[in-house]
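Sorry to interrupt, but I need a hand with the structure work. Go ahead and set the record down below:
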Amino acid sequence: MSDALFPTYAPAPMTIVSGHGCTLVDDEGREYLDFIAGIAVCALGHAHPAITAAIEEQARRLVHASNLYSHEPAGALARALTTRSGMARAFFCNSGTEANEAAIKLARKWAFRRDDLRRTTILACTGSFHGRTLGALAATDNARYREGFAPLPGGFAFARFNVVEDLAAKVDERVAAVIIEPVQGESGVHPADVVFLRGARRLCDERGALLVFDEIQCGMGRCGPLFAFEHYGVRPDVVTMAKALANGLPIGAMLANERAATAFAPGDHGSTFGGSPVPAAAALAHLRVRDELDLERRVAERSEQLFAALRRLHQKHANVLGEPRGLGLLAGVPVSDAFDAKALQAAVRDRGLLVGVAGGNALRFAPPLIISEREVERAIEVLDGALQSP
């Protein structure tokens, strides 16, 4: 890590120089099987030829024009995402936290446009993570991330995740929107119950609030369908996306239905680089490849394999590993309090496998969606070997 950078990260003692498929290569030529994919970003793996070609072609034509003018990649991507989601409008930005900031502003402006000036509260869930900007951080239920940044913006509250009764007690005339991750990633990978999401939809409809799904980590096919809400059969008013959208290039998106989209008018929000031609072209290529590969089927097959293998490891190493949880190719495995998940992460890295840590003491698996049957087997073999080492 360069000493010219702020020490806001604690990177592993390795320097990545290249990648191909589901493999990363360090500056010593050592290869690693990547089961974290840039934290659920590189859904098509590294250096995918279709993504590379789209970037090269677009970069030769137009890299930036700003949102003072229209350009085809952003327009085409907006049409593709709204068509596939059933939403009406798209707003592009650069990251997941910016997409959630846009959703927060949209919800409050929506209430303002309706002359419902009491509705300023954004109701999030315990265990949530929505980003690092001050607004998104205020909607994030993690004291470690919030420490030292007070006072955070007001107008945020929390309901207990997966507890419909608590949500019902807190969705009142002051709530502009309820924001939920269909699968909480940073808390250790916890899927929402379908009953909870259906209850949230019903309560928002009955009490006049918008329902926002944060699919930054669990969307773009990670749960199987392109949108996680499709898996649950619960349609939000607003959905936020980022991470895997352009398979590694920075882009975020907020999609809204017609009812919510009417809140924004020219000048209400903006982003200098939002929807720039190159990441938009990469995102379009990602969608095309997804269709060609039938990724929804592939994710279902590899997910079944991965979770079955993780359950067998839990049974074999019950003193260390807990029951796996998650959805699609987003899995969390709690590690016993007597052991350190970060130490286990380092042990498998030394054996050539990259995994994440989340929720304090859980391993997180978010491999590229193109992962093969043999690569899943290999990852399990590496983890098993590390667990058997003294």
Notes: The radius of gyration is 21 Å.
